[in-house]
Amino acid sequence: MPSEEPGPDQLAWRSRTLPPVEDLGGGVWSIPVPIPDNPLGYTLVYALETARGPVLVDTGWDDPAGRTALADGLGRAGFALAEVHGILVTHHHPDHHGLSGHVREESGAWIAMHGVEAAVVRAIAGLPASRWAGRMARSMRDAGAPEEHLAALRSLGAGSGGRDGAGGVTESGGGTENGGRGGVRLADALPDRELVHGESAGVPGRAVRVLWTPGHTPGHVCLYLDEPGHPGRLLSGDHLLPTISPAVSLYPENPGDEPTDPLGDYLDSLERIAALAPQEILPAHQYRFTDAPARVRALLDHHADRLAELHSQLKH
Ligand SMILES: [Zn+2]
Ligand SMILES: [Zn+2]
């Protein structure tokens, strides 16, 4: 059981340094992979040991430092990159799915994600940057965004031939996951397998169940690891983080363009995690924590407050 004392992961977050590779027990390792020029600092990739090689939950941001950190971290856990057996992708953002294609090339691992997320990746992969930026600009204009914001977006699309899709998580204090890099990153590796809500994630010899938790992205999943000795561990991706409130935005890549309700999805997904009452949360950013229902309540309250503010503004 986790103690009350802050662990090395939490101390690292507080001091804004990269946490160590950690053996979390029961064949689970935490491997930090840096995100360049970004207040989030790093993604926590988890490696699940199996007889057929490690299965990764997310892979991290694709740049030279990330590739080195992942390979070295796996080495600390006793594995070579070439031994990776599979990759479970919580969602398509490049700080999670960025290195998946590279790992598959090096190891022959399969990549698995929810079918809805796979559709998003397919849509992104088939869309040139200029078209994507144009689509974003259109939906922002429809929502009443000022022209100077649209101009910045249009110039992004006209520029580099790609997009930085990391945008997504804002901390109560300020920083954003985009980090101002303006860099170009496509996380467009298509999956080999589909993850289905309520079913096994297909990790050989291990009890890992898929929980579809749409909201932060339409096909976001959490993975529930419930094993003797270490019951009730939830690998939460970006769905549930200890102090950061994940961004919930329209689903711009939504291939069908049908009306969606991301915030409604997100709040429902939160309630389902609270009802599950996992014993420990292993998030993709920041640090591990325990009281999931309390964290869910805080997020529900936060959104209720913001919705009430919005509602009162709309009445004027
Ligand atoms: Zn994300
Ligand atoms: Zn993230």
Keywords:
Metallo-beta-lactamase, Chain A, binds zinc ion, 4-stranded mixed beta sheet, 13 strands, single chain, alpha/beta, 316 residues
Shape: globular
What is the CATH architecture descriptor of the largest domain?
4-Layer Sandwich
> CATH superfamily assignment of the largest domain?
Ribonuclease Z/Hydroxyacylglutathione hydrolase-like
Please give the largest β-sheet.
Answer: 7 strands, mixed
Tell me what you see in this structure:
The longest helix is centred in the last third of the chain and has 24 residues, at 292-315. The protein is globular and about 60 Å long. The strands form 3 sheets. A 7-stranded mixed beta sheet has the order 1-2-3-4-5-6-8. A 4-stranded mixed beta sheet has the order 9-10-11-13, with no helix packed on it. It has helices at residues 8-15, 64-76, 94-97, 100-107, 115-125, 129-142, 147-159, 262-276, 292-315; strands at residues 22-23, 28-34, 42-48, 55-57, 86-88, 110-114, 169-170, 193-195, 208-212, 221-227, 230-237, 245-246, 280-283. Helices cover 35% and strands 18% of the residues. It has 2 domains: 8-124 and 182-315, 4-Layer Sandwich (Metallo-beta-lactamase, Chain A), CATH 3.60.15; 128-168, no CATH class. With 316 residues, it is of the alpha/beta class. Helix 2 (64-76) links the parallel strand 4 and strand 5. It contains 9 helices and 13 strands. The structure holds zinc ion (2 copies).
